[in-house]
Specification:
By secondary structure, this protein is of the alpha+beta class. Helices cover 33% and strands 34% of the residues. The chain is built from 2 helices and 5 strands.
Length: 76
């Protein structure tokens, strides 16, 4: 993993996208089962369990959040 990808993952974890955290995304509440996973430039996912159905899914972190986290660590 490159230094910039590691910094992006660290920033996303600070924003709450980390294992065992819960968050409401896309109208559903999820419990995260993994830390962020970078699958391509700008595409970051996290494995999560949907609270209501208990279904496990791979959820894409919204691009505006990824861009905000990315710009935040480039400026530092």
């Amino acid at each position: 993993m490159s230094a910039s990808n590691a910094a992006l993952c660290t920033k996303l974890k600070q924003l709450g996208f980390s294992q065992e955290n819960r968050m409401r995304l896309y109208g559903e509440e999820f419990e995260f089962l993994s830390d962020p996973i970078i699958i391509a430039d700008g595409a970051v996912v996290v494995d999560a369990r949907e609270k209501r159905s208990h279904q496990t899914r791979r959820i894409r972190i919204p691009l505006p959040i990824v861009n905000m986290a990315n710009s935040g660590h480039k400026a530092a």
